[in-house]
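As a warm-up, study this chain.
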Amino acid sequence: MCESTFNGWNPIIQGCTLASYVMFVLKHEYIKQGEVGYVPEEGYGGGNNSVLALKYIQWLEKKNPGLKLKYKLRGGEHCIDANGRKYYLDAYNPETREIYEIYGCLYHGCSKCHPIGEKFSPVNKNRRMESLLAETLRREAELRAEGYTVHAKWECEIRKEMANDPEMHKFFKLCRYTHRLIPREALYGGRTQAFRSITQATTTSLLNYLDFTSLYPYLNAGGTAYPFGNPRIISAELPKPEDPLTYRGLVYCDVLPDPNAEIGFLPQKISQKLMFVLCRTCGESQNISRPCTHTKVSERYLTGVWCTDELNYAISKGYKVLRYHEIWHWDRWVAGGFFADYIKPLLKMKHESSGWPRPDMTDDEKDAYIKKIWDMDGVQLDPTKIKVNKALRSLAKLFLNSAWGKFAQNPDKVETKLIRLADAVGMTKFLNDPKYEPVNMIPFGTKKYFLSRRPKKEALLPGGFTNLAIAAQTTSAARLRLTQAMEKAGIENMIYCDTDSVIYKENVGENKLESMRGEQLGFLTDEIPAGRKLKEVVVMAPKMYALRMEDEQGASTYSVKAKGVSLTSKNSEAISFNTMKETMNDFISEGISEPLVAKMMTFKRGDNALDGLWTCVTDKRVNPKMDKGHYDIHGVVTPFGQLPTNTLLIDDYPFYDQ
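Now compare it with the structure written out below.
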């Protein structure tokens, strides 16, 4: 399959994993020069600054409304030549030639915090504290000698000032803008959310379970546009929050959700969960049983990095941008492109290996089917190759879904190397590289050692073809497609959603999602087998739900989905539709329930990365998890932060006009 489809490239030779092989093929066969830009893992921020220093610079601007400083977060650090040396400044006012320096006590040898100057610095063991202080004062003197006015502040002085100034303390506590745009923060993943715990079909309402066909391949093949080349970075002269957003790409900003919205439209990672909250404080506290009481903007606003398509959609739904921090704008966008060239042959293979829809089709029906696939997906099928081949179909699907994932690869991985004990120089270089932190040093026999190290955050480099903007745009467009389906179905009718599927109720005779149904890529198909109807749904947690279906004779069949649980015969008795329903009834009425317990064969290893593996049988406890919103006495989840209509908010947002 690989050699015939991908110009002879061998997966055994060219890639040790499916993802690496797919990226190899894309790189050598489909991606043209200049199409995929270089996106730094930590953004285009440049040098390091302390969080306290960045907050203090913003505080200075807050106290002096006319002050606009050039610093890391606005235009980048200014560089000055003084006495033959280059100095990067914490903040600079080009109109008045004023320099603002914030000295970290530990890094610059503060004499108040470190009075014993002969001591060596804990962050630089080759330098004494008095040497660091002398260098700091020399630098300051050289800047003054060039005619600049220098305002210097030690971090200990800032902390003392903050302790005596409640307004300053509040500002520092609320300030969340402490770094440049980091593209990985725009990579959120799919939306998985429970809306109702127990839902039954009635004589007037029915339940539907629909799934998008190959949602990610659909987006890759032309369902969304992707940025071409490198972005233009905008960190100064940003647009006004009230103006329409004319840029397209990634946006780092503060937004205020509509407190009356039926659902959240922008994702946030809170407590390692993906949530769609209307109030930041509610999401952080995760108090599911009490309604939101936060009416101050400072308690509610969100800070994050989002794709502009998703941000603009949220704005159209009542979200308000409070302040832009940084924007990455791409002038050119391409739909399809190299992704489409890669996907079309695989899509052809998938359709052909699926066989004919019916074994008794006439020649005219077969011709009509081939034309339909051409009209829907743009691939021309060969009738002589259309026959069922489940293995080939499975492979084609796997390759289709692996097209974009390598662009999101995380470089923050532990590197392990086996080194001979006699190679002392090699061991020293490996462990003392300033770009890495040592992790492990474990003997292997009597003459070798396993050494492990992890890259420091500031030294992270993306892989050869990592592009987080492409990955973020893929997941963002998928969430938008899912959101549109949820809104068409009606938020009040939603039961459950998971990345590319929706379970919802509607009245008999309605077909609210008719315009989004179809057999082509990116459209919804029914997940309930033909001849059966979905009668009841129980949702315990994201990726933990059970379905009851009935056939035409009224006989019930069940389907249970339980992430992290192997549904063996014994476990299926413990975690079944009936036990899940009983558990959720207890949880709704009492607010607590006994966990369902399954037996799991798992692998374990020690704390160190190189410890051995062993198998053991453990108990897997399954509990209700309705912690992505407010949970009421009827088993219905509403978004964190939803307030009654016409509730007035107190606008105490502290960062306007900065």
